[in-house]
Design brief:
Blueprint: E1 8-12, E2 23-24, E3 30-35, E4 41-45
Parallel strand pairs: 1-4
Antiparallel strand pairs: 2-3, 3-4
Length: 50
């Protein structure tokens, strides 16, 4: 569904802060969604925003 989070796994990563797609969310966290080599959605979360 548009506007909803895709099924995914999430990890905190200090490297998330260097990704150009990093975005703030309603809950105050910041993260970016990427795809792994198998096409799975992976959320990289900025640990300083948790």
């Amino acid at each position: 569904l548009p506007g909803h989070h895709p099924p995914h796994v999430a990890f905190t990563s200090a490297k998330a802060t260097t990704h150009p797609g990093l975005k703030p969310h309603r809950d105050g966290t910041r993260s970016v969604y990427i795809s792994d080599l198998s096409g799975n959605s992976v959320e990289l979360m900025d640990p300083t925003s948790l």
